[in-house]
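Design job #97: recover the sequence.
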């Protein structure tokens, strides 16, 4: 039987299988590769096996690839699940290594690591990766700063059309979400504070509370967090996708600096847009507070504005606006840097985008806290 099968397989080249029911001997022959298997899996399930152990003979197989190895493995698993002992014989060295590879990587199988790290070694490896990350980020920031200074000396070399488009996307398109959320923040502050102030007969002081909280802290912070989630993530996704599709490499091959084309316009546009968005958030937040003060405490809009002009000075406004360019530089830097760290496929784009949003929000809050400490020390 095997000789006849070998001759037939050699003539056709296609995969074939035969059964010797008296010995439960399954003889495979021909090319067990992805293009030659056809309905082989269905044929294997219909073999007339008798009770007892099974022998799978791979000696007549002329070639075996990963698809054929998976088919042999699944057949073996199915027979063993029926309570049979299965023995695979006649495999070449290559076929045996493929079968071992399939066996070690079957679904649900967790690859066993051959590296056994101790706690100290794990801490050392993690620290080394973190140090390398910070060194890489500082190198990126230094490169961007150098190119920005060079571009400032030669404004004609800057991509002004790209800057205008980025300004529109990062600034103008973000007005609705920034306006809505800062208005709601103003409403919440006025509502929560107004109830307490009304109990002590100080309802008019609601303007003091809303004005200071919105202008000095909440509007810059909330606006920066919104922009980090909206614009920072888009920077990472855009540059990351260009990394995956090798468009960044194409720019370099054409002599175009990716930083000058992809990073500087975004950074410049965001440094301009975020203070303007913060100013818009200030107005909408105060408007939300005034509406709630009128509804909850019966304070008219004129009274609210008069009180606001008496207690809120220009310094409070400038403190909030002054933070915005710093937040913008953080968001643009982290967003574009994480985009250039994308490697591989779409999974990496999603991972780096998530990392970008987390790092941007974390750094914005940390820097805002540092500003508060500095202003407190300076008595501002």
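Job complete. Output follows.
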């Amino acid at each position: 039987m095997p000789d006849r099968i070998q001759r037939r397989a050699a003539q056709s080249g296609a995969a074939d299988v035969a059964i010797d029911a008296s010995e439960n001997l399954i003889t495979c022959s021909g090319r067990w590769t992805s293009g030659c298997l056809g309905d082989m899996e269905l044929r294997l399930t219909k073999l007339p096996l008798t009770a007892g152990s099974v022998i799978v003979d791979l000696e007549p197989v002329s070639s075996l690839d990963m698809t054929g190895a998976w088919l042999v493995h699944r057949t073996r698993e199915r027979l063993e699940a029926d309570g049979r002992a299965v023995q695979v014989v006649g495999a070449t060295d290559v076929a045996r290594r493929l079968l071992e590879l399939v066996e070690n990587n079957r679904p649900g199988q967790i690859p066993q690591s051959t590296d056994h790290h101790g706690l100290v070694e794990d801490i050392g490896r993690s620290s080394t990766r973190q140090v390398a990350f910070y060194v890489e980020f500082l190198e990126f920031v230094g490169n961007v700063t150098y190119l920005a200074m060079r571009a400032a000396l030669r404004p004609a070399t800057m991509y002004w059309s790209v800057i205008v488009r980025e300004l529109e996307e990062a600034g103008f398109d973000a007005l609705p979400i920034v306006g809505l959320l800062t208005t709601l923040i103003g409403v919440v502050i006025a509502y929560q504070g107004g109830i307490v102030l009304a109990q002590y007969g100080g309802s008019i002081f609601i303007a003091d509370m809303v004005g200071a909280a919105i202008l000095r802290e909440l509007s810059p912070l909330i606006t920066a967090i919104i922009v980090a989630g909206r614009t920072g993530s888009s920077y990472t996704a855009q540059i990351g996708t260009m990394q995956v599709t090798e468009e960044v490499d194409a720019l370099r091959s054409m002599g175009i600096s990716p930083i000058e084309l992809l990073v500087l316009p975004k950074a410049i546009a965001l440094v301009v847009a975020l203070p303007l968005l913060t100013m818009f958030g200030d107005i909408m937040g105060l408007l939300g507070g005034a509406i709630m003060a009128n509804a909850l405490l019966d304070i008219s809009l004129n009274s609210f504005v008069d009180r606001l002009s008496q207690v809120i000075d220009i310094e409070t406004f400038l403190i909030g606006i002054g933070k915005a360019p710093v937040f913008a530089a953080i968001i643009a830097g982290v967003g574009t840097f994480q985009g250039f760290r994308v490697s591989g496929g779409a999974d990496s784009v999603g991972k780096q985008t998530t990392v970008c949003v987390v790092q941007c929000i974390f750094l914005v809050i940390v820097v805002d806290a540092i500003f508060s400490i500095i202003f407190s020390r300076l008595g501002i």
